[in-house]
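Title: Prediction job returns without error message
Component: structure pipeline
Severity: low
Priority: P3
Assignee: unassigned

Description:
Job completed but the reporter wants confirmation the result is attached to the right record. Sequence as submitted:
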Amino acid sequence: MRRNFLRSNRDPDWAGFFRQVAALFNAGLSLSKILELLEGKIQGLDLKKIRSGLEQGGGLAESLGSLGLERSLQNLVSVGERSGDLGGVLDRAADLLDKRQSFRRNLRQALTYPAFILIACSFSILGLFVFILPVFASMFSDFNYSLPLITRVLIGLPNYWPVMLSGLALLIWFAIKIKTSDRLKHKLPVFNQIHRHTQVSYFARTLGSQIKSGISILNALELTASGADLIYRNAINDIKLRVENGEKLASALSSFPALFPHTFDQMVAVGEETGSLDTLLLRAADYYESEVEQAVKRAALLIEPASTLAVGLIVGVVAFAMIMPLFSIMNSLL
């Protein structure tokens, strides 16, 4: 089953585990001794199970896979075991995970404030309709006065709360659909560009890290595809077939202009020509992660004034609708 690139904080601390194992392994300790020393110190990991797997003759990669480590990282560990450079490979795996976690953390920080603004505005509008409008409705009912249409509509809105709740449920359903539907993410304006760059950065960093560790490009593409969304997974599998048939990676990527920007294709082409594909891919990942973070920050900056304007308009309309009949009533009483 595909696991999302932006993971939960409740996942095991794989980055910390890799970093500590690499440091102790490079210091000359055996894996069994390292696991014994780290037992109970790594969040969400049952190191006893890993030790048991090693004692039964299995490899570290195999044992980690049984605990849910994604296939691309499992393959990195396997390459480290076979090449004798386990410490170096684990350090690179930790770097990969640290980059992902930093990317996710920055996105969450950028989205926290606009989310708070939207929630606060929603509660303000709800309070207006639940607590303020009924007071005016009760006041106007004491006067034999024909209310303007806009006032009658607003006063009558609380009576249609099932409709409003249905609308809210529809919005929640749509938000969930956006999160779970890969195809919808690619169709929504603004959001599709952010999602596209997120997937490109994942592709570049995962593929670059694996190639740097000595994994063949075909195996690296196969493993990278397993962590991408549905549309990118199908495209990467097709790219793998093209590369397998002798086509250059940059040329294969250019066949999917809607998924991989032309700038990215050019960076890959330069990497292939200079023999530094892994380095160029990792640089491209940094670039597109930065693009995503900036796009999210720009969207966040627009949400605040847009939300404030929306609340201001609603409050203004309500105030006009309530004050207008009050003035008329007062004039009739004078």
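Comment from assignee: result matches the submitted record. The CA atoms of residues 61 and 74 lie 5 Å apart.
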